[in-house]
Amino acid sequence: MPLRYIFKQLMLPPGGLLLLLLLGWWLRQRAPRLAALCFIGGFGGLWLMSLPIVVEWAARAVEREPALEAAQWPDLAARAGAIVVLGAGREQADPAWGSDQPGYVALERLRYAARVAKVSGLPILTSGGLHYGQPPSEAAIGAQVLQEDFGVATRWLEERSRTTWENAVYSARMLKAEGIERVVLVTSAAHMPRSRWCFEQNDIEVIAAPVGFVGVPNGRPLNGWLPEVKAYWQNGMLLNEIVGMAVYPLVYAAD
């Protein structure tokens, strides 16, 4: 398991907040005031992360790319050379299917890519590598779902990437070899700003086709001020993108 994964899980919620609570417990006698701040920060962070209203506020800042209107789909073939759909994890050994399956977010992207491909006629590239080194790749799983469930063939499989940056690097090499320099990029709305930046850094122009917007009215009781498990996951995803957008230019700009 990559060390970067362990570090990421310990730093981002809930890992970082739980470590803050643990630090507060350890400091409770040595430094009571600092311990109190740690407890307040830890519990406060856990509470805020669980609120749908925080999802709504945070997503409005992260989901900067507008949706690609359906009226534009038929004209995409004149503007781009391919559809690139990015992987988003997999569920291992699903008993219902007898094999690995795309995760919820990945399936959402695949469905959208299939619909756009059918209308536009553009070929598809699926991008996503192995899960901790274990086959099949996310790209292969995505291609299988596109073919068997949506009746859409995949022309290219990018099966080496482990990060969004590598999605762009390896996809760009395959596309440029085919003379393609502009693509319709399908990924989650919150993930689109970072994804666009990565592809454009690799000299691929992007027509954004975001899906899975969460920065919409939450429709929950009390306007989203009650804690909810789903909100915790969504806020974690948004925080991951906020950190990623801050770190990626520092790490990859020189590349």
UniProtKB/TrEMBL annotation:
Q: Which residues cross the membrane?
A: 6-27, 34-55
Task: Describe the location of the DUF218 domain by residue ranges.
Answer: 82-244
Q: What processes in GO biological process is this protein linked to? A: Gram-negative-bacterium-type cell wall biogenesis; peptidoglycan metabolic process
Decide whether keyword Zinc is in the record: no
Which UniProt keyword terms apply here?
Membrane, Transmembrane, Transmembrane helix
InterPro entries given for it? Cell_Envelope_Assoc, DUF218, Rossmann-like_a/b/a_fold
Q: Which GO terms describe its cellular component?
A: plasma membrane
Task: Specify the superkingdom.
Answer: Bacteria
Query: Record's Pfam families?
Result: DUF218
Q: What is this protein called?
A: DUF218 domain-containing protein
